[in-house]
Amino acid sequence: MGDAKKEDKISIIIPVFNIEKVILRCVESVAKQTYRNIEIILVDDGSLDSSGKKCDEIAKKYNNIKVIHKLNGGLSDARNKGIDAAKGKYIFFLDGDDWIDRNTIEKLYNLIKEYDAEIAMTTGCPFRESKEDDNEKEDKIEILKEREILIKLILNKNRWEAWGKLFKSSLFLNRRFKRGILYEDLQLIPKILYDVKTVVVNDNGMYHYYLRETSIMRKSPVTKYIVELAEENIDYFSNDEEVKNLFIEAHFKHLCYWYLNQIIYNGKDNEEFEKEFKCFHHKYVKQYFWCLAKTRNERLEAISFFIPKQIHRLLRWGLRKWKCRMNVDGFVAN
Fold this sequence. Notes:
- This protein is α/β, with parallel strands linked by helices.
- Strands 1, 2, 3, 4, 5, 6, 7, 8 and 9 form a nine-stranded mixed beta sheet that branches.
- It contains twelve helices and nine strands.
């Protein structure tokens, strides 16, 4: 890398809550980046363990770390505090129990400069004990433009999370994450993606996430918030019919997936979510069935949710049993 003073400053925002055992790994993965002109903002969101103290201890080792201690307000509030304090031309969000390859920021920054993009992003991969050389990973670059950004990231891949993306900080000039909700990324990131001209994706898994038993991704059941945010997105894009339909399709598929896996497969009855899902399903199923579904199987699955969940579960159980009988050691039953 060249002289750090000639490079744009990048702000790395790391929310911290009750992760005393892993916060050092996260921060050191940033402190050791090959890109040097960075500031690290640790936002201690009212941790009940020694996470806040560890943040202060780590900050003493580096001259580019700022620690913010605040009352607990949730992930959205912590990120917003980080945005308020950020001085960089670019912002990168990193969850406190995750970490990144040491050349992640350099690669994403170079992609933004090379393709004049507003956002450069990498993909995530789950925690692995084995170590591998960051530089050995093969770069897989994809340049997305305007409508293609929403089609590929929202509709095809559900890539609406904030982490793993290097944003121009100006994209947050009048925007903040909504406080007090789950799935806050779904509320904000699609709106940002709609306004940008170019996004560059390096699909090489430079972002490493760790699923603890206490992490949000494992512990929190699906809630009504995800339905409310789907409706909010559809309403937000109501003046653009093509994009509105794209979001109806994306959210319809996403919510059906959640209902199928949480309610039908795993039997996690949730009356509040089920009620909201049914309202959403009944509202958009006709449009999805006739206009947006691409295959016969998609259409059949869409209308299958009219069946009561108890019968749905019985049919799924019967289908699995039938498949087992049809395929036992290669034998196909008559």
